[in-house]
Amino acid sequence: MATIHVDGKTYEVSGADNLLQACLSLGLDIPYFCWHPALDSVGACRQCAVKQYKDADDKMGRLVMSCMTPASDNTYISIADDEAKEFRETIVSLLMTNHPHDCPVCEEGGHCHLQDMTVMTGHHSREYRFTKRTHQNQYLGPFIGHEMNRCISCYRCVRYYSDYAGGKDLGVYGAAANVYFGREKDGVLESEFSGNLTEVCPTGVFTDKTHSEHYTRKWDMQFAPAICTGCAVGCNISPGERYGEIRRIENRYNGEVNGYFLCDRGRFGYGHANLKERPRQPLVRQGEGFVEAPKAEALKLAAQLLKSGKTVIGIGSPRASLEANHALRSLVGAGNFYSGAAAQDSALTALCLKVLQQGPVPAATIKRIEQSDAVLVLGEDTLGTAARVALALRQAARGKLLTMAHDKKVPDWQAASAADIAQRELNPLFIATPAATKLDEIAAGTLRADPAGLAALGHAIAHALDSSAPVASVNADIAALAQRIADTLKNAKRPLIVSGTGCGSAAVIEAAANVAYALSKLNPATAISLAVPEANSLGLALFAAPDLDAALARLGGSEAVVLVLENDLSRRASASALDAAFANSTVIAIDHQQTATTATAALVLPAASFAEGDGTWVNFEGRAQRGFQVYDPAYYDRHVAVQESWRWCAELRSALGQASWAKLDEVIADAESAIPALKGMAAAAPNAAFRIDGAKLARAPQRQSGRTAARAKVFVHEPRATQDPDSPLAFSMEGINSTHAVERPAALIPFAWSPGWNSPSAWNKFQAEVGGAMKGGDSGVHLFKHNGAASYFPATLAKSEGLSLLPLHHHFGAEELSSKAAPIQERTPQAYVALSMADAERLGIAHQALVRVEFGDYLLSLPAKVRVDLPVGSVGLPVGLAGIPPMVAGAAVRLSKGA
Amino acid sequence: MTLRSASDAQYQRPLTRLIDVAAGPLWLQGHEAEGGYQALKQVVKEFKPQEVQAKVKDANLRGRGGAGFPTGIKWSLIPMGPDAGTKYLVCNADEMEPGTFKDRLLMEQTPHSLVESMATAAYAIGAQTGYIFLRGEYVVAAERLNRAIDEAKAGGYLGKNILGGGWSFELYVHTGAGRYICGEETALINSLEGRRANPRAKPPFPQIAGLWGRPTIVNNVETLCNIPHIVLNGADWFKSLNQGKSKDAGTKLYGCSGRANKPGCWELPIGTTARELLEVHAGGMRGGKKLKAWLPGGASTDFLLPEHLDLAMDFDTIAKAGSRMGTGLITVVAEDQSIVSAVRNLEEFFARESCGWCTPCRDGLPWSVKMLLAIERGEGVPEDLDQLAKLTRWLGPGKTFCAHAPGAMEPLQSALKYFRAEFEAGIPACSLPQAGDTCHLPDSGRRPAAKPPNAAPASVS
């Protein structure tokens, strides 16, 4: 702890921070540019100057940069000092000498850190009377717009993109007043985390191109605290809506989960919510096509089907909320409810749940991953399956610089100095995966092997750590590597094991669990992170319901009515298996997308996507998080019948004469009582009765303009804003909007705004300590906790003969919903089959030649990618890409030359 | 030929005593014959590294790169002992200060002196590797230094197990790509690492975390070249070289450029007056013109006036007069030269050479150039003088990331102080504020003609 004196007032601070961070945490405003809570201090912009005094008696003082000065005990400073103020205003006036003042046509306007800081310093008129320098802008791909003339050269972009995210293709060029931030030449930014540039850039140089396509000012959008459904990490997002369309997604700070950064799949994959072809009315089959039907008629038809006396089963979905799955389960009865995940996914996810729930090792949050000082990745390419983890693993490796800086008595917030000291030193990261990953470049060691080989390595490591762990027979090289990894993990303070369902192998997950178990005996600070397939896979696993294959077996072509919830079954089971099982079934599909399943349904009920509905998701660490409805589509068009899936189920229950739920809180309470594993999910966010000063919390900024005109093309009178029975949030700008009045629960902050802070930097105002936890704690609640002890998994390793399928996960295209967004499609590769050099040579298959790929019921013709990294015997197929059917990992596959 | 004794008159000029420009540099044999490498032999055989450091500290040698920081103190901050690990010695030979050409003389004419000096200094600080960061344009120096290094290696003065003392030192010449900022020691280190030549934040100082994150000493060429002589002849001898002209010790390479009759570079006792430099050694002003102003030691020092000519050219005396000795090579401005043009020329250089890292330097220097250009063309506006004065304050010490912009402001602030009338002359009378005159034409620096008395005031854009 340290006492600092600011403008005559005394404050207690931690003493570990710099003055800027300490003052911001105290709620004091100091303008800044180059500093960022996740990027720390470099002292480039000189904006955060304050006057520092030697002691209480010193009246002269001298200007210091608050970001470069420690907030140590007995520091005397003044923010309000005249010289400091004049200097800060001068800095903005200098930045403005080349800034184009194009705010009216700039996408950043209204959520611009430069605007906010300019106003904060009081700079208002230009003294510079000469020409400004101009730059050429670049094409950077479908995500990011580039307008270099707005650049104020704060260097944040390169520090984030290159230093933090490990990108290679964004740099700083030139010198003096002609520094240029861009690529060597025009081209798509390669990093999967490029979207964060739009938030890291304090002005409008890097902007969200998908937002520009249908641009709306921040103050004119309506927001909600939402959860990304792009993978199971569950990043907190702030989607913005206008005129019934999601206009962009920004990061919503959560200190334990996503921090300040999202991946590009999550940020730019929202297009599925805006698709014109989404079902918005109930659709009733008529011959080969559908006709729209009024809601009442659709419900009547559905009730008739459910009452027909045929078997009724419900198939849930790992991409639907807990509430939706529970509502379906209670509608059809627990014995008729199936998870909707394919058998393999379901079993692997259940295994992950078992490891996290019954094992002795806690599931790592993203923050905990970042703090790891030694990591073993076993089998998982996290960039494809849980991208935010990959970014966090980079921080774990970079963490070495903090210890090295500490050894030289350099504070850890001195980013540049720490990097100068550490040079290329990294914390050890061992990556054992079937295929090369982008993180290999920062790895202390890598191993390429098939899942059985990876499991063998894992067991060898576990055995090296604890001789009571099962032994696996491995060759001398693997044994030496295992020993090296074991020694490294043993010497670490905060070791981490990363694995998951990605390579489709239970043996790999079990081996990873054994390593974590063995390590936890030596070091209780050991953590584990397991990637699971989809946004709510782990939540669905808590239902312990039988899987899709069981549902298909039960149907077996018999007459039945099947309710399919937000699930495209064609992505999970082969067409022939589905055809056989559903031969005599009537399908009622509840979904927000047109899918192969809705196409076969007798009735389609239009569900809400994340944009129009509330729901709770359980992320890969077991954290239940609630996402809230962003807007009401019926406000713009009252014929739209879109509503949450759980509401459809609730209304079907009513239509069947069963007691039902009218509000979200009721279905949550019912879920908690019906399924003990969900106990606690209600606490993911305050319930609908929550109020601040008796008022609800506004979804839109108080300056939202044109609300009265938003619907004028429909009807000239403005209706009352939609009332939200499900949450403490109010539609439109009506309600509490201030950060100051009361500390708002983190789960209920739709967008970052505070008086004078319009940009994402406003998150400062919601954090207990800037860059740390939110006031009142980060949102989300863990539904389970790791258990004290567990026995080792046996080291049974099935050695497969011949060629077997290996799923490969692309960041763009592997996930169903985001792959419907046009900019994501632009980044998605074409389908291919990958095979090892040795197999290619043996089979006479040339790189890029067409190959016949046979497995299960399928015969595909795909271009070959002959890869040096793939293990012999593994045939890689890119999961989820167009032209790639559902596959069972490890299944036998035949390859042959020719189309 | 034996080493000349300290009483030898020739030896009053240790740095240049072996220089004969007409004959060219001495190569290894000649250099050895004139007493070269004696100091290195002596330290390796007789001294502990700390003893060499102590000698240098006692000699009160101050850095000759311009800042005058005591070399002994700089060295004393580097970790010593068996656990200190890899350390580096870097010679700052990126001589790019306008009007400065002293290191060039040493490197071109007596390259073995620098090689020996670096080996001796490296021994003192326990460095295993040395780099000479050489200005790229110094191609002759590069060639000669590389030859000297090759010869020294062959002669056992560099490389493994030097002179059988069990200590090894490798020395490399690295030529810069032409950035003035590389003369800033931490920018130099970044450049040497292959990165952008941006200065680093201090602390940590290079002695703690320098090149490749390792303890590093960066010394100027001239500074280093004094070391062997201090080792051989002792601190008292070195202190006596000033001939009582200064508190500072040793000799100094002084020089003169600009409108003088015989511009050049000479080794003289430190504390020699600028008047002696100009009138005796440089032969006075060319064409009998009067001296108007002079820069004591490079472009980044404040102008002084003729009345300051009798000051001793040492670090403290010149500082007291409101300037800095800098590199000690004076630049003279004649009475008929425009001070505005001179300053504009300097600021153009500094604006171009800014690394672009911190705001005041990157954006402030070009602004000063544009105002100076306008004033030079007679197109200034009255606010320009205030704005220039403001820049000299806000680009001053402590406000910017490194000393580049504060250095750039030194000639500007002193020119404004001494020659304000010349600046005012660049602001035409018609540009004085007039009624209804509220907007500036972009870029011309001219104000619009006065409006007719009844015209409505123009709106503020």
Any overview of this molecule?
- The complex is a heterodimer of chains A (899) and B (461).
- In chain A, 27% of the residues lie in helices and 18% in strands.
- Chain A contains 27 helices and 36 strands.
- Chain A is globular and about 90 Å long.
- The mean pLDDT of chain A is 96.
- Chain B has helices at 28-33, 38-46, 49-58, 71-76, 102-109, 111-125, 139-154, 185-192, 221-240, 274-281, 315-320, 339-353, 359-376, 382-394, 404-418, 420-424; strands at 88-93, 129-134, 170-175, 216-220, 251-258, 264-269, 291-295, 329-334.
- In chain B, strand 2 (129-134), helix 7 (139-154) and strand 3 (170-175) form a beta-alpha-beta unit.
- The relative contact order of chain B is 0.11.
- Chains A and B meet through strand 4, helix 2 and helix 15 of A and helix 12, helix 13 and helix 14 of B.
Largest sheet, spatial ordering of strands of chain B: 3-2-1-4
Shape of chain B: globular
Q: What is the H-and-E element order of chain B?
A: HHHHEHHEHEHEHEEHEHEHHHHH
What Rg of chain A is obtained from the alpha carbons, in whole angstroms? Answer: 28 Å
Pair with the biggest interface: A-B, 45 and 41 residues
CATH architecture of the largest domain in chain B: 3-Layer(aba) Sandwich
- CATH class annotation of the largest domain in chain B: Alpha Beta
Structural key phrases:
heterodimer, A: 899 residues, alpha/beta, Ubiquitin-like (UB roll), Dimethylsulfoxide Reductase, domain 2, Barwin-like endoglucanases, seven-stranded mixed β-sheet, 27% helix, 18% strand, B: 461 residues, Rossmann fold, de novo design (two linked rop proteins), 3 domains, four-stranded mixed β-sheet, 10% strand, disordered N terminus
Task: Give a short summary of the structure.
Chain A is built from 27 helices and 36 strands. By secondary structure, chain A is of the alpha/beta class. Chain B starts with 27 loop residues before the first helix and ends in a 37-residue tail after the last helix.
